[in-house]
Fold this protein.
Amino acid sequence: MRTGERAAPGHGLRRPTALVSWAVAWAALLGPAVAKSANGDLPIVRAFPSFARVPRVDLVPKPAPLVPLAEVERELRSELGVPTEGGPWLLIKHDDVSRELVGGNKGRKLEYLLGEARARHARAVVTSGRLGTNHGLASVAAASRFGIPVTLVLGPQPITEAIRRKLLAMRAAGAEIRFHSTLVGWALDVALYKLTALVFPGELYYIPPSGTSDVGSIGYANAFFELLEQTGDEGLPDEIVVAASTGGTAAGLLAGICLAGRWDQVRVRAVGVTEEWLQSEWLLRSEAREAFRAIRDALGPEDRARVEECDFMGSRTALTYEHGYLAPGYGHTDARLDGVMRRLRDAEGVELDPTFTAKAMRHFLDRARERLLAGDTHRRLLFWNTYAPVDVEAAIRAHRWKDPDAPWRDLPANMQALFDRGGERRPADAAVPAVIGR
């Protein structure tokens, strides 16, 4: 979460007292039984019962499977000439599950973001990202379950046929879409919506790109408690590899590790998959600290007394931020990444995406080789898969388009050139300039 966003009182968890007040208001409105039924079975609530009062909606199947990457490990050991010893060493946490169009790491964040939006009785939600934003698609699909309309403010990204289909799915799911082909236009429109949400919080709720905020990061603090319940202390990995774009997933995991009292036991290896001027190690650490403090201050006195604050900004043991895996650029792939995706698909049946998880998997495989050669296999190495393929075609088929032969004509006029120009399809690799967001 950027500094400018923290100051906005319209975004609940940014100030510690805001979460408490909204949680109490939510509980008073719906009654303790409703709050408990929504949150009582969560791992973080089993650890801290008073957290049950925090607003949340139910979106994610739980728990996400945790399984060995047995075939990939066998291949790596064979490649390096390292014998197999003991049980499986490489693990994968499968957040690549979905409910309709809500999948991957998006659902975990949206459970709390939409929970807060509903607690505030917001009439509409606005969020932003690049043209192919998985977060935007998931936000529209999730909000529609609760009758909340969503506006997507989209900036440009290299165009592929998959992105075209995703844009149609966004429209089919009910999104109002605003597209800007320039950085300036995109930024001004986003700023206007953020200002509106700040001035009229009961009318509009703003969700940052990828759902990255102290509210959204709660989902991954809870996810760490989920992992701990699955492994116990003896089976807990000492390193977790995860893709980091806006950083909310890694920040939430770090907050959860601290809350669980496992600060010196687990290292998050956050693989930067976006331009360094958009995200940095310092920002990620700051996001984790703010998420932790907001969660801690939402707890009741007895639970809060059991929590110790961690050195989020200075610790060298809890976080490694990897900068060297962005190539060949945001939204682009190459033969090396294609090979990584093919390897996981063939060996384990795991689907990755070239923008985020394939780049993180490249680092995971490099780290696994490094540790195998060093004989450092006494604690497990885990890959957290945050990508979930969703069936956009089902949503497109089910929608009643004005012109079924040219469904893109239901999109804003300035987007139709992405699909059709003078009756001719644009080539799949046609591109518009890249811009911030996801």
